[in-house]
Amino acid sequence: MSRRPIWEEIYNRFDPFQPAAEQARRADRPRSPAADIIKLLQAPFEGTRALVTGTTGTGKSTELLRIAEARSRHDFVVVLDLQRHFSDVVGDEQALQDISSWEVVFLAGLAVARAAKELLPYPLPDQHLEELARAWQKAAKAADTPAPPAQLDLGAVAKTMVVLASAAAPLAAPATAAAAAGTTAGLELLSAATKVADAATGALKWQLPIGRSQRRLPDQDEHAQNLLGAVNVLVGYVQSKLRRVLLVIDGLDRILEFERAEVLFLRSELIAQIACRMVVAGPFALHSHPAKGAIPRFSKNCVVFNEPVMQKGTESEPGPGVGFFCDVFRRRTADLGVPDLVPNDLLERLAYFSGGRVRDFVKLVRALAEQGWVDDAMHATQPLVDRVLDEMRRLLETGLDAGHVEVLERAAADPRRLIPADPRARELLDYGKLLPYPNESEWYFPHPLLTMHLVRTTRPGSHG
User: Fold this and answer.
1) pLDDT value of position 194
2) Is 261 helix (H, G, I), strand (E, B) or coil?
3) Which of 152, 229, 306, 401 has the greatest count of CB atoms below 10 A from its CB?
4) Are both 89 and 116 inside the same structural domain?
5) Which of these, 228, 287, 224, 217, lies nearest to 255 by C-alpha position?
6) β-strands 49-53, 277-282 pairing
7) H or E segment at 329?
8) What average pLDDT does the segment 156-162 reach?
9) 252, 312, 323: which is closest to 284 by C-alpha?
10) Are 441 and 312 in contact (CB under 8 A)?
């Protein structure tokens, strides 16, 4: 019997740009900061603000989702994915690279408003949205934003946003009463097609210019402060009706340039002044810079590393992170009843050559499923896996010049495995060519796919 339907299902389940939606399909990460953040959010402190950094593709979105789900029964959780907003709603993902702190504050306020209007059993006063609209228009004009609209219906604009929020809003009552009322954990996806009666609303388009301002507004600028005040009035109203608001902002980790990260988190405190607890995914440029310790107002600053799929000093040997990826695969395929589909040694090979990057592992599995369907394979084989690895290796090598290779080889030759003192090293980090690992002290090594042929190391990456 053909296993093409199985390969097709695996292909669909391994989407490199979407975290696993079902909790049962997520593997626990022993080195993730999520558990510590969840414990911290159980405390009564109102000033809890956590910044989670890490290179793209390490699985931060999954860990943020884990945090949001854990708190969804206790807090009114609002999850704003800025990368998805700019990609799917604004239609200009590149504009995220130029976003300003006051724009992040505005979008956060709009996300809270969207969630409150849909899920709160009380009406959201129109005056709060009107004040936010006026504040945005004035701030946009002061920042030389191109063509801000003269009239702004934020209620309609908010309906174009994609937001995750607590499915059962925890009302301002003792926790025991809420539990007795049957409050359940979970997040609800709010999109333009959700809970909208008229078809015309579903066709609304995002029309606000975001990430296009020509002038930076300092925190003390009256327009920036008025915008922050309008957002905090809105958040305060929601918190007066609910126990607490927890704001989770994903997507700012996609910002590559340190200069923009500096503007958002070091030269501005606006984001951290939103008057609720929050967890924010921040750019890895902050973590890999000496300025990290100077980030103000965040009470916890942590990082999601690549899983250590290799041993420091003997990088050709698999590390403890390999087992995590094997668990990821088994959890996502357990109900398919095909434990022999990918033999364990080949699964470990895929895990090792993912470099410990969750997204790269998912890409490899998806590519394997695609080729398995094409070949109508009964199970994965060594030649099939090697073909998948070779294709990704060639893709990863694309664009690397002699200077990049020299930096990578210098990193591999350093017995301390530190980042080379070369600006190209930061670029290689941003694009997943040079990878950070957490086992022992923090250390760096070229992506193992690059050590197959291009990058020479003292101990070539020849696992398997």
Assistant:
1) 41
2) helix
3) 306
4) yes
5) 287
6) parallel
7) helix 321-333
8) 88
9) 252
10) no
Q: What is the pLDDT of residue 30?
A: 81
Dihedral class, residue 211 (left if φ above 0, else alpha if ψ from -120 to 50, else beta): left
| Inter-axis angle of helices 358-375 and 321-333, nearest 10 | 50
| Residue listed under structure tokens 């969840």 | 38
Cβ contact 56:145 at 8 Å: no
pLDDT at 181: 34
Residue 444 pairs with which residues in a beta bridge?
436
Evaluate whether 242 touches 172 at the Cβ level (below 8 Å): yes
Q: What average pLDDT does the segment 247-274 reach? A: 92
Cα–Cα distance measured from residue 327 to residue 28, given in angstroms and rounded to the nearest whole number: 9
Same domain, 209 and 347: no
| CB-CB contact of 155 with 117 (8 Å) | yes
Confidence of residue 451 (pLDDT cuts 50, 70, 90): very high
The domain total for the chain is 2
- Residues 416 and 312: their CA atoms lie apart, in Å, by 9
* Whole-number percent of the chain with pLDDT over 70: 89
pLDDT at 314 over 70: yes
Please list, in sequence order, all residues whose beta carbon lies within 8 angstroms of the beta carbon of residue 65, skipping any fewer than 6 positions away: 19, 79, 164, 187
Question: Exposed, middle or buried, 220 (CB in 10 Å: 0-12/13-18/19+)?
Answer: exposed
Looking at the fold, whether 143 and 234 belong to one and the same domain comes out as: yes
Domain boundary among the residues 303, 322, 344 is at: 303
Q: Tell me which residue range forms the domain holding 342.
A: 314-446
Helix 101-119, helix 258-265: angle, nearest 10: 60
Same domain, 334 and 290: no
Quick check: 306 and 5 in contact, CB under 8 A? Answer: no
Residue 240 contacts residue 122 (beta carbons within 8 Å): no
Whole-angstrom Cα distance, residue 112 to residue 165? 9
Q: How far apart are the first and last CA of the chain?
A: 30
Instruction: Give the position of tokens 């920036």.
Output: 224
Residue 425: predicted pLDDT = 92
Same domain (yes/no): 48, 174: yes
393-396 CB contacts, 8 Å cutoff, 24+ apart: 393/449, 393/450, 393/452, 393/453, 396/432, 396/433, 396/447, 396/449, 396/450
The set of residues, in sequence order, having a beta carbon less than 8 Å from that of 427 and lying 6+ positions away, is 404
User: How confident is the model over 15-45, as pLDDT tens digits?
Assistant: 998 877 777 888 888 888 999 999 999 998 8
pTM of the entire structure?
Answer: 0.86
Distance CA 113, CA 163 (A): 10
Q: Please tell me whether residues 121 and 188 are part of one structural domain.
A: yes
- The dihedrals phi and psi of 40, each to the nearest 5 degrees, come to -65, -35
